[in-house]
Amino acid sequence: MSFTDFSKADTLKQLNTLLNEKSYVAGTEATQADVTTYKAFQKEYPALTRWLNHIASFSEDFESLPAGEAPAAAAAAAEEDDDDVDLFGSDDDEVDEEAEKLKQQRLAEYAAKKAAKGPKPAAKSIVTLDVKPWDDETDLEELLANVKAIEMDGLTWGAHQWIPVGFGIKKLQINLVIEDAKISLDELQQQIEEDEDHVQSTDIAAMQKL
């Protein structure tokens, strides 16, 4: 049975009942049945799915999160013992031993998968930067040397070329790779433009995520 087999009225309760004693929709490991059920749930309840996934990302910090006031409807639903859909677990006041064991199993599986994946790679971007000299008498090699002399954690300089812009003037076009969390392009441009003897201005010609 999958999510798509349920009627709308009982969808959440039946899905919760199905998974009460199982880690997966079918079998003992993740299968396409789980994928189909998840996608169907996500399509039917996109906002709820997004919220659950987002809040789950804070699981390691649950105890340290600041206090907050739940919406009145949610607070009332938590206090009532009726046939309303229970989004967060069993209707029983006490969690039996098997349910607790299953919970610990799921937590262990999640922790193992997270450890196996390791830390996420840093988000990076490749940028093409235009550096314009003052005039045709500007020493372009000195300009290039001064630009590449700038060192920052998370910054890697790449290939460059000289692009004619008219009247014998050539601008420097240079590629660089940055770690998004570490490098501010505004600060980098400002630092390049501090070379007032060679640099008139800088512009971002292109940028894309790696």
From TrEMBL:
GO terms for cellular component: cytosol; eukaryotic translation elongation factor 1 complex. PROSITE patterns: EF1BD_1, EF1BD_2. Residues 171-205 form a coiled coil. SUPFAM superfamilies: eEF-1beta-like, GST C-terminal domain-like. Residues 124-210 form the Translation elongation factor EF1B beta/delta subunit guanine nucleotide exchange domain. One of its GO terms (molecular function) is guanyl-nucleotide exchange factor activity. Residues 87-114 form the Elongation factor 1 beta central acidic region eukaryote domain. It comes from the Eukaryota. Keywords: Coiled coil, Elongation factor, Protein biosynthesis. Gene3D superfamilies: 1.20.1050.130, 3.30.70.60. Belongs to the EF-1-beta/EF-1-delta family. This is Elongation factor 1-beta. It comes from Cyberlindnera jadinii (strain ATCC 18201 / CBS 1600 / BCRC 20928 / JCM 3617 / NBRC 0987 / NRRL Y-1542) (Torula yeast). The lineage of its organism: Eukaryota, Fungi, Dikarya, Ascomycota, Saccharomycotina.
